[in-house]
Amino acid sequence: xxxxxxxxxxxxxxxxxxxxxxxxxxxxxxxxxxxxxxxxxxxxxxxxxxxxxxxxxxxxxxxxxxxxxxxxxxxxxxxxxxxxxxxxxxxxxxxxxxxxxxxxxxxxxxxxxxxxxxxxxxxxxxxxxxxxxxxxxxxxxxxxxxxxxxxxxxxxxxxxxxxxxxxxxxxxxxxxxxxxxxxxxxxxxxxxxxxxxxxxxxxxxxxxxxxxxxxxxxxxxxxxxxxxxxxxxxxxxxxxxxxxxxxxxxxxxxxxxxxxxxxxxxxxxxxxxxxxxxxxxxxxxxxxxxxxxxxxxxxxxxxxxxxxxxxxxxxxxxxxxxxxxxxxxxxxxxxxxxxxxxxxxxxxxxxxxxxxxxxxxxxxxxxxxxxxxxxxxxxxxxxxxxxxxxxxxxxxxxxxxxxxxxxxxxxxxxxxxxxxxxxxxxxxxxxxxxxxxxxxxxxxxxxxxxxxxxxxxxxxxxxxxxxxxxxxxxxxxx
Length: 478
Hints:
The protein is mostly helical.
């Protein structure tokens, strides 16, 4: 009953804050008019938007079958890429200002003078983010089912209503501030779960109770190569996921972005260490018979840990933490997916469309995407982690290559940009269908996309004029 009451209060709080931050312009809705001046808000919201229910449930349970390699590789890559992301964040902010970009496809379009590339990237984002949303909705439904006692479908409906409400009302300002608060709740929930396992396992002596095969770097039920690939593909998103990059666009100045680089990596380190350790540490507390049901469905482990380890009422904190993980990510994803469809594709097809019309369509289409994703989540047999690693990996590949080269190499061209998108997306899909399963398709996508980018850029003369009709300034001139 307490969980139900807290959920109602949580939703009411989100709606009230969304109403307070309601935006009436397209620029305010999608980038908060570039007026966010609190580094902690951007840094912790960045963490919350990145880590979803897929991490809280899928990432927490995946160690049960992947073993120690999951902790090592997942924590290492997340911490390393988080630090790297905020090292280059000030330059990304500068470019968003220089090109007056409100979306990532728009930023790359103006950097490369390529409307075709913008539309292609927006289309890829629409497809792959929808797949990603399906995985997150699956996590939400599992969560509500385990901690509220509702059916799986009822859990989906609850998630749809919550996300749709505060997305439609508030836009990015609401997403940022709510994600900031949700990030704090997520950190508390992750520490509680980690602490509960350590406490029940006798402190650090818990590691002596874990079976030797689980602690082997060869992997438990999952080969270490697959674990390495999943960890790399997922954490690569920290550098290039559009739903994270728009948070950098919203900063008031470069100082805010720099100081956000303190809060972001620290919160990501704490959260990833606590959450990704749960599946392995569970072996030190529970018997093989107790864990057996979760070997085929590791996504259900975290609700079991919360109800089994924590005192009555404390599992409610875990419930709110997991809900926060899901809602912060879904709202940001829906925003960038919808704006890519309405602002980048619709405006390309109908340039005369007013911003007010685009804003209205952004709200409507966002709700449609939420409903469609939830519908496809009704029956998802695949585990969350592999599904997320492929969908996030495709988007990260497609954005990472033209973004990084665009920031640091002024020789890139429209041809290179478009070629990299086609090569990255196509190679990942083909490798996923026909390639060696021990080699993650994201590695193939990065290699093929980079080769295509360099080949396309070097084969074609660099354009002189930028999209806005101004002479292209050197990359360092800011």
